[in-house]
Amino acid sequence: MSPTKSLPLIEPVADEAVEPCCPPLTERTFTAEEAERTAKMFKALGDPVRLRLFSAVASHESGEACVCDISDVGVSQPTVSHHLKKLKEAGLLTSERRGTWVYYRVEPSVVAAMGRLLTGAPSGVS
To answer: Where does the record place the HTH arsR-type domain (predicted)?
Structure first.
């Protein structure tokens, strides 16, 4: 049996400025570019399998999840990979390859911006 080695987790920088994707819905009408960007994120979450995968990553105890831990969503492994790719393309997840496995993390700045978009909370309030 080979010895295992723990890899350090990359912590998000707390002071990192969060650039919102768009203004709150109640602030003003979206530009065409803002609407396109926002629709892409919500479309990615509009699929039940993607929403389950996103939830599995977001609720994982370490803040990140190995694809091996979240792939039991009732579809084949290639389909899981396709859905994770769509979530990454929408900017909702980031990933890091470690050996043969890929670990996924929720992109906190995007999720915070989406929350502000829906609630109308000012940028400085979480």
So the answer is: 30-126
Q: Is 66 helix (H, G, I), strand (E, B) or coil?
A: strand
CA separation, residue 3 to residues 6, 67, 119, 126 (Å): 10, 22, 48, 42
pLDDT tens-digit readout, 41-92: 889 999 999 999 999 998 888 888 998 888 888 899 899 999 999 999 988 9
Tell me how far apart the alpha carbons of residues 48 and 50 are, in angstroms, rounded to a whole number. Answer: 5
Domain count along the chain: 1
Asked, for residue 124, whether it belongs to a domain, the answer is no
Q: Do 51 and 75 contact (CB within 8 A), yes or no?
A: no
- Domain containing 49 equals 35-119
CATH of the domain at 87: 1.10.10.10
> SS3 breakdown of the chain: % helix, strand, coil, rounded to 5?
45, 10, 45
Residue 15 counted as domain residue: no
CB 19 within 8 A of CB 114: no
Reported pTM: 0.70
